[in-house]
Every structure is written in C-alpha cells, then in structure tokens.
Amino acid sequence: MITQQLFEEYNGQEVYVYLLSDKIDVIVCSLGATVLSVKVHDRFGKKTDVALGMTSPSDMVDKGDYMGAVVGRCGNRIANGSFTLNETTYQLARNNGTAHLHGGEAGFNTKNFESTIDGDSVVFEYVSPDGEEGYPGKLKMRVRYTVKGSTLAIDYYGESDKDTVFNPTNHTYFNLNGEDDGSILDNVMQINADRYLEIDERLIPTVKAEVAGTPFDFTQAKPIGQDIDGNNVQLRLAGGYDHNFCLNDNHAATVYSTKTGICMDVYTDCCGMQFYSGNFLVGQEGKSVYNKRSGFCLETQFYPDAINRDDCDKPILKAGDKHHSSTQYVFTLL
Questions:
Q1: β-strand partners of 247
Q2: Quick one: pLDDT at residue 223?
Q3: Pick from 48, 144, 149, 304: CA 20 to 30 A from residue 81's CA?
C-alpha cells in the first residue's frame, strides 16, 4: 500500500510518501529523495524504527549530515575536488577539507525531486543542469524505492547528454536497536569483503589492503564496537570506521541486534560499500538526539575517488548511455 501527503513547504513542495507492507513501513521524502523512517517488527512484536532521521526540511539540509538522503552526483570523496575526463580537467567544490564530498555544496540531498507513484514503488526524479556543482552534462536522475514483503529496494537510474561522473548512493544511518538507542557498538556486523581501502589524513583512499589480522576484518560477524577503539592508525585517522570495503559478491553485509532480534542483509550490484560508524555525529536533534556512533551507514557505491584511480572501475556515465544500479535491504528476525 502506498499513500502520500504534503510534508512541509521548503524551497518548493515537499511530499511524504508512505510505503507499507505487512513486514515493514518506510517513509521517504521528495527533498533529497530521503529515507525518513524504516519501521520493522522486533522480537517483541513492536514496530521499531531503525533509521535515524530529522523532522524538518530545513534541519535535513542544514544539520542532518546527509541523514537518509540520496547523495551525488558523486557520492563519497574526490581528491582535491578535481578530475580529468576526455582531456578536460573539472574543478568541483572542496567542501570537505581539500576534498569534494557527496556532490558538493548543494548536492542531491538539497534538491527537490519530482515524485510519481508507480505500483509498489515511488519514483523520484531530478534533472541536474550542465555545469551544476562543476559537473559536465545535463543529467536526468531517477531513484525508485520499492517495498515488498520485508525488503526495501533502491534503484538508481541516470542519463546524461555529455560524458560525466555519476556515483549515487544512499546515506541512511541505521541502528538495529532502534533509532533512539544511542549506540551502535553492540550491533553485530559481517561484511563480505577480504579487502578494504586504506585512507590518508584527508580520508582519501590510498591502497587496497587485506582485512585479515586487522580491525577491519568483518568476514566473521562481530560487534561494531569490538575493535573500534583499537590502537590502529586507520581507525585514528577516521575516528572509527569510515572506509570503503571491496565487496566479494552481491551479498554485501549482514547486521543484527541482540536486543531487538532485527537482522538486516544488504545486497547490491555495486563493487564497493562505505562503512561509516557515525564518528562525526555531535548531538544532532532529529527524531532523537544523535551523538557519536549512534548510527551506522552502509553506502553502496563505486570506490571513493574512483575517477582518479586506475585500479578499479570508474564511475563514468557516457553520453546517451543509461546507468542502473540497485541495492536491497532485507529485514528478518533472528
């Protein structure tokens, strides 16, 4: 069942869309094509909201740390905010130290998407003009949210009239204890990746490294907090986990809460996934007050700074081609 209603006017009309099944309830919003709420039955029969979220559009843009939003054109970081494509160098905003982050000063998270109901789905669409945030090409971007049974699926589509960089992802913060719990450290996580990308002091990836024997080894399930404060230079640089994992296959991760019994499996056709442990949350006031490590993100994507790397696929969308990528979050009970 799908219903929709006016949210709050902010830079145009905002729309709440409710996607409901007998297993999960999801609320999304046209501002930033944002996930506002994901309610799942816990082991006690209660519907628990496992997605952190803001309650006003202005806070979503100004204070929300991309909470629940679709980010782009290019999710994650681009070193020095620049890249070269077809022998032309493009300079983007450096909105995260010397890096370009999540599409720039006014990325997709700040844009109003047009919404259309389509069967079990809502489709959000935004047209990014040529040169917006420094990117080449007029880009038509669509995001489809679908709820069926216990699955929330996110499909991303893109077409451009010039070669461009395109790497959208979703920035929902999860806490499977419930969004108001305050800590993710006892959420138990398994990541299907034998390698990850080390970072430098700018949080820009450097080399691929084996996870074995490091705090980044989640090949066997363990609590997020088990190694997070260990004596490790990579953890110190990021204040916790904020690293891309090089996925082995399409089953990216499994996370569960021993408190609620809620389990979430992540499936994707993307090659990478950024695991971010909410290191920079500093008391944001949303549905609850969110402090450091009160939510985690699993952002499926091309590798960060892939446009400037030669050891991975580059997020180049050729003029006239059609991009499609997909990620599914499947909720069950232990």
A1: 193
A2: 98
A3: 144
Grouping H, G, I as helix, E, B as strand and the rest as coil, residue 23 is: coil
pLDDT in tens, 184-208: 999 999 999 999 999 999 999 999 9
Q: What residues are labeled active site?
A: 171, 299
For the chain, list residues with pLDDT below 70.
1-15
Provide the residue count of the chain. 334
Per-residue model confidence (pLDDT) at position 10: 46
Q: What is the C-alpha radius of gyration for the chain, rounded to an integer number of angstroms?
A: 19
For 180, residues 6+ apart whose C-beta sits below 8 A from its C-beta are 49, 287, 288
* 139-148 and 121-128 beta bridge pairing: antiparallel
Residues 76, 100 contacting (CB under 8 angstroms): no
Is the pTM here over 0.90, yes or no? yes
How far apart CA 296 and CA 212 sit, in angstroms, is 22
* pLDDT (tens digit per residue) in 206-220: 999 999 999 999 999
Question: Residue 59's pLDDT is what?
Answer: 86
Give the Cα-Cα-Cα angle 324, 27, 241 (nearest 5 degrees). Answer: 65
Of 128, 137, 57, the closest CA to residue 90 belongs to 137
User: Residue 320: which region, alpha, beta or left (left: phi > 0; alpha: psi -120 to 50)?
Assistant: left
Q: Across the strands, what pairs with 142?
A: 125, 157
How far apart CA 203 and CA 154 sit, in angstroms, is 27
DSSP string, 91-140: E----BTTBEETTSTT-GGGSBPEEEEETTEEEEEEEEPTTGGG--S-EE
Contact 295, 175 (CB under 8 A): yes
